[in-house]
Amino acid sequence: MLSKTAEYAIRALVYIQLQNWENKRPGFKEIAINIKSPEHFTAKILQILTRFELIKSIKGRNGGFFFDPNRKDLSLNQIIIAIDGEELFTRCSFGFEKCDGNNRCPLHDDFAELRNNYAVLVKKRSVQSLAKKILSGKAVLTQNIS
User: How many structural domains does the chain have?
Assistant: First the structure.
């Protein structure tokens, strides 16, 4: 359901949070390596996230990306909207320009339920909750595929 950009954005933010909890501010190259994302693509994503004030950055020798410590948890919903807009939560799965109760595509009711459940999920989950799952060993940030 997510674009590749949104997937990398979420992974980057989770990595940043994990590093921030260790009092570190990672740079874009470090982030790219650790989330297995192309460097230039990662840099562009981080620029977008900074522009939307979802994270902060400091340039220079001791610089890097970090979360404002006074900010509340960052929901996945906020990231998705910043990267992809709200279309994910409104678009038709069949590609109809106008799909509603009067103009239903064959998947309208099923997809509407799925889309609504997904919207609830991404509002409940945060970068911080995902990072805590990784810290506890219940999840991983990247897969080790042999």
Answer: 1
Give one DSSP letter per residue of 96-122, joined into a string: -SS-SSSS--TTHHHHHHHHHHHHHHH
Length of the chain: 146
pLDDT tens figures, 80-138: 999 999 988 888 888 888 888 788 899 888 888 898 999 999 999 999 999 999 999 99
Domain boundaries, position 40: 4-135
Residue 81 token pair: 């909207």
pLDDT score for 90:
83
- Does an H or E element contain 32, and which? helix 28-35
Report if residue 141 sits inside a domain: no
Return the DSSP state at 72: P
Q: What is the CATH number of the domain that holds 34?
A: 1.10.10.10
* pLDDT tens-place string over residues 64-76: 999 998 989 999 9
- Which residues is 65 bridged to in the sheet? 57
Cβ-in-10-Å burial (0-12, 13-18, 19+) of 68 comes to: exposed
